[in-house]
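Page 47, continued from p. 46.
Same chain as before, 231 aa.
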Amino acid sequence: MTSGGYLATLLDVLARQSSRPAARRDLANRLVDLLAVTGHRVRGTEGRLWADFDADADPHAANARLFRSIAEAADPLAAARAAPSLIRQRVFRRLEGWWRRQRQRATFRHLPADLHAVAWNDIPPRRRSHSAKDDIRSAIGHLATYERNQVRPGQPFKGDQEAALWGLADIFIDFTGSDGHPLELPHSPGSLFIKFAHAALWPYFGATEVTVDALAGRWRRAKEHARSTSA
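Result:
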């Protein structure tokens, strides 16, 4: 399938969910951002975006790799903002109290109270032995370490595919104008979200890995895992 045909299929599924028009370039950019955040190389045109996804042994291993990629990014705040919603929420929740304390310092008071709105390059430079940027990288790195310590060997799990589903859930919600949460998206094989995920993934995985039934089951398990870990 050509890159144009690939995006046309995705845009067609989105149009069936909402009359709100979706921009082809914006959709392609979001898919590129998702791959970059999940630590995968982006090869060729947008029609091959998913070609480098492979399997992780455990969901915690996938999360650890996501957090590590964000911590080591050139701009960790931008990387976190582009991450799947549950990863993004955990990063900014972890930094919320630290940022309130930082803004009590004179050199930080001019910056937005909401860290989501802060540009990485606007954060004040190192002062003596202290660096706010190092604090941010360290805090996100601690999330990666925590997730890595939760890995249980011997439990096969398509971690990268789950990360892709969370990212696709964010994209689906944004491009259809919904104000819902990814956990509210259905896992029925006939749902438009699962059809959207299938259209995005099927050219780049084994045929049996991303059937609508396989993706529906994986999305159901991903939501159950997310609810159990946030309880």
